[in-house]
Protein backbone atom coordinates (compact mmCIF):
# COMPACT_ATOMS: atom_id res chain seq x y z
CA UNK A 1 0.00 0.00 0.00
CA UNK A 2 1.37 3.41 -0.98
CA UNK A 3 0.64 5.45 2.13
CA UNK A 4 2.01 8.65 0.60
CA UNK A 5 -0.47 8.42 -2.28
CA UNK A 6 -3.25 7.80 0.21
CA UNK A 7 -2.42 10.37 2.88
CA UNK A 8 -0.70 13.41 1.40
CA UNK A 9 -3.35 14.33 -1.20
CA UNK A 10 -6.09 13.69 1.36
CA UNK A 11 -4.54 15.91 4.00
CA UNK A 12 -3.62 18.62 1.50
CA UNK A 13 -7.06 18.89 -0.07
CA UNK A 14 -8.82 18.93 3.28
CA UNK A 15 -6.45 21.52 4.81
CA UNK A 16 -6.95 23.73 1.75
CA UNK A 17 -10.70 23.26 2.14
CA UNK A 18 -10.52 24.32 5.78
CA UNK A 19 -8.54 27.40 4.75
CA UNK A 20 -11.32 28.33 2.31
CA UNK A 21 -13.92 27.75 5.05
CA UNK A 22 -12.01 30.10 7.33
CA UNK A 23 -11.93 32.75 4.60
CA UNK A 24 -15.68 32.39 4.30
CA UNK A 25 -15.95 32.69 8.09
CA UNK A 26 -13.84 35.85 8.10
CA UNK A 27 -16.04 37.39 5.40
CA UNK A 28 -19.16 36.38 7.33
CA UNK A 29 -17.86 38.00 10.53
CA UNK A 30 -17.05 41.23 8.70
CA UNK A 31 -20.42 41.28 6.91
CA UNK A 32 -22.35 40.71 10.13
CA UNK A 33 -20.32 43.03 12.37
CA UNK A 34 -18.92 40.20 14.46
CA UNK A 35 -15.58 40.30 16.16
CA UNK A 36 -13.25 37.74 14.57
CA UNK A 37 -12.88 36.25 18.05
CA UNK A 38 -16.60 35.42 18.02
CA UNK A 39 -15.67 32.73 15.49
CA UNK A 40 -12.03 32.02 16.34
CA UNK A 41 -12.92 31.50 20.00
CA UNK A 42 -16.14 29.66 19.16
CA UNK A 43 -16.84 26.26 20.67
CA UNK A 44 -19.51 23.62 20.22
CA UNK A 45 -19.66 22.94 23.96
CA UNK A 46 -18.04 24.60 26.99
CA UNK A 47 -15.63 21.69 27.52
CA UNK A 48 -14.51 21.53 23.88
CA UNK A 49 -11.58 23.35 22.33
CA UNK A 50 -12.27 26.51 20.30
CA UNK A 51 -11.93 26.88 16.54
CA UNK A 52 -8.35 28.17 16.85
CA UNK A 53 -7.30 25.00 18.66
CA UNK A 54 -9.15 22.76 16.21
CA UNK A 55 -7.17 24.36 13.37
CA UNK A 56 -3.92 23.94 15.30
CA UNK A 57 -4.78 20.31 15.97
CA UNK A 58 -5.38 19.74 12.24
CA UNK A 59 -1.84 20.99 11.66
CA UNK A 60 -0.60 18.83 14.54
CA UNK A 61 -2.19 15.78 12.93
CA UNK A 62 -0.42 16.56 9.66
CA UNK A 63 2.86 16.93 11.52
CA UNK A 64 2.30 13.70 13.44
CA UNK A 65 1.55 11.84 10.22
CA UNK A 66 4.96 12.74 8.78
CA UNK A 67 6.77 12.30 12.09
CA UNK A 68 5.43 8.80 12.73
CA UNK A 69 5.68 7.55 9.17
CA UNK A 70 8.84 9.21 7.90
CA UNK A 71 10.70 10.45 10.98
CA UNK A 72 10.33 14.08 9.90
CA UNK A 73 10.77 16.80 12.49
CA UNK A 74 7.61 18.14 14.07
CA UNK A 75 6.25 21.34 12.57
CA UNK A 76 3.02 21.69 14.49
CA UNK A 77 2.21 25.20 15.73
CA UNK A 78 2.99 25.64 19.43
CA UNK A 79 0.13 28.05 20.06
CA UNK A 80 -3.31 28.86 18.76
CA UNK A 81 -3.51 31.60 16.16
CA UNK A 82 -5.49 34.67 17.15
CA UNK A 83 -6.64 35.95 13.76
CA UNK A 84 -7.88 34.51 10.50
CA UNK A 85 -4.72 35.31 8.55
CA UNK A 86 -2.61 33.44 11.09
CA UNK A 87 -4.98 30.46 11.07
CA UNK A 88 -4.69 30.26 7.29
CA UNK A 89 -0.90 30.68 7.53
CA UNK A 90 -0.71 27.68 9.89
CA UNK A 91 -2.68 25.63 7.37
CA UNK A 92 -0.56 26.83 4.44
CA UNK A 93 2.61 25.85 6.29
CA UNK A 94 1.22 22.38 6.98
CA UNK A 95 0.24 21.99 3.31
CA UNK A 96 3.70 23.08 2.13
CA UNK A 97 5.42 20.63 4.47
CA UNK A 98 3.16 17.77 3.42
CA UNK A 99 3.70 18.49 -0.26
CA UNK A 100 7.47 18.67 0.28
CA UNK A 101 7.65 15.20 1.81
CA UNK A 102 9.59 13.07 -0.67
CA UNK A 103 8.00 9.90 -1.96
CA UNK A 104 11.11 7.96 -0.98
CA UNK A 105 10.49 8.81 2.69
CA UNK A 106 7.40 6.63 2.51
CA UNK A 107 9.15 3.51 1.24
CA UNK A 108 8.15 0.58 3.44
CA UNK A 109 6.19 2.66 5.94
CA UNK A 110 3.03 0.54 5.66
CA UNK A 111 4.84 -2.23 7.56
CA UNK A 112 6.88 0.08 9.79
CA UNK A 113 6.46 -0.52 13.54
CA UNK A 114 5.08 2.57 15.23
CA UNK A 115 5.02 3.04 18.99
CA UNK A 116 2.55 5.73 20.03
CA UNK A 117 2.96 6.85 23.63
CA UNK A 118 -0.01 8.71 25.05
CA UNK A 119 0.30 11.29 27.86
CA UNK A 120 -1.69 8.99 30.17
CA UNK A 121 0.91 6.20 29.84
CA UNK A 122 -0.95 4.05 27.33
CA UNK A 123 1.23 2.81 24.48
CA UNK A 124 -0.15 1.68 21.14
CA UNK A 125 1.88 -0.66 18.93
CA UNK A 126 0.84 -0.26 15.31
CA UNK A 127 2.10 -0.74 11.81
CA UNK A 128 2.21 2.30 9.55
CA UNK A 129 -0.91 1.09 7.78
CA UNK A 130 -2.77 0.61 11.07
CA UNK A 131 -1.61 4.02 12.27
CA UNK A 132 -3.00 5.73 9.16
CA UNK A 133 -6.23 3.73 9.01
CA UNK A 134 -7.10 3.52 12.69
CA UNK A 135 -5.56 6.64 14.24
CA UNK A 136 -4.30 9.31 11.87
CA UNK A 137 -7.35 9.63 9.64
CA UNK A 138 -9.77 9.48 12.59
CA UNK A 139 -7.94 12.18 14.55
CA UNK A 140 -7.47 14.41 11.51
CA UNK A 141 -11.10 14.23 10.42
CA UNK A 142 -12.36 14.74 13.97
CA UNK A 143 -10.66 18.13 14.20
CA UNK A 144 -11.55 19.09 10.62
CA UNK A 145 -15.19 18.25 11.21
CA UNK A 146 -15.24 20.06 14.54
CA UNK A 147 -13.76 23.21 12.95
CA UNK A 148 -16.40 23.06 10.19
CA UNK A 149 -19.15 22.49 12.77
CA UNK A 150 -18.03 25.47 14.88
CA UNK A 151 -18.18 27.74 11.84
CA UNK A 152 -21.65 26.39 10.96
CA UNK A 153 -22.77 26.72 14.59
CA UNK A 154 -21.73 30.38 14.51
CA UNK A 155 -23.82 30.98 11.40
CA UNK A 156 -21.25 30.82 8.61
CA UNK A 157 -23.15 29.65 5.51
CA UNK A 158 -21.15 26.52 4.75
CA UNK A 159 -22.50 23.48 2.98
CA UNK A 160 -21.41 20.26 1.37
CA UNK A 161 -19.66 22.06 -1.52
CA UNK A 162 -17.44 23.79 1.05
CA UNK A 163 -16.55 20.46 2.65
CA UNK A 164 -15.77 18.57 -0.56
CA UNK A 165 -14.69 21.38 -2.87
CA UNK A 166 -11.88 19.15 -4.14
CA UNK A 167 -14.54 16.97 -5.80
CA UNK A 168 -15.33 19.63 -8.38
CA UNK A 169 -12.23 18.49 -10.30
CA UNK A 170 -13.98 15.18 -10.97
CA UNK A 171 -17.29 16.48 -12.33
CA UNK A 172 -18.13 14.97 -15.68
CA UNK A 173 -18.56 17.79 -18.21
CA UNK A 174 -22.18 18.62 -18.89
CA UNK A 175 -23.52 17.04 -15.71
CA UNK A 176 -23.26 19.95 -13.27
CA UNK A 177 -26.70 21.53 -12.73
CA UNK A 178 -26.78 25.05 -14.07
CA UNK A 179 -23.35 24.86 -15.62
What's the gist of this structure?
The protein is mostly helical. It is 56% helix and 6% strand.
Q: Number of folding domains?
A: 1
Largest sheet: 2 strands, antiparallel
- What is the level-2 CATH architecture name? Up-down Bundle
Report how far the terminal alpha carbons are from each other: 38 Å
Give the full name of the CATH homologous superfamily. Answer: dinb family like domain
Estimate the mean pLDDT confidence.
96
| Named CATH topology | Four Helix Bundle (Hemerythrin (Met), subunit A)
Q: Order of strands in the sheet with the most strands?
A: 1-2
How many distinct beta strands? 2
Strand content of the residues, in percent?
A: 5-15%
* Outline: globular
Low-confidence stretches: none
Structural class, please? Answer: mainly alpha
What do these coordinates show?
This protein is mainly alpha-helical and 179 residues long. The chain has six helices and two strands, in the order ααααββαα. The chain has helices spanning 3-31, 36-40, 51-70, 84-100, 128-153, 160-163, and strands at residues 113-117, 123-127. The longest helix is centred in the first third of the chain and has 29 residues, at 3-31. The chain is globular, with a radius of gyration of 17 Å.
Amino acid sequence: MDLRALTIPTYVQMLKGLSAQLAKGEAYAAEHGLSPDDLIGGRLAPDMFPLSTQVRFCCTQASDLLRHLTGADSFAPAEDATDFASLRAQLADAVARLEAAPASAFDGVAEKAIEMKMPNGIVFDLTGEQFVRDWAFAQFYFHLTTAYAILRHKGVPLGRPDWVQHMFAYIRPGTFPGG
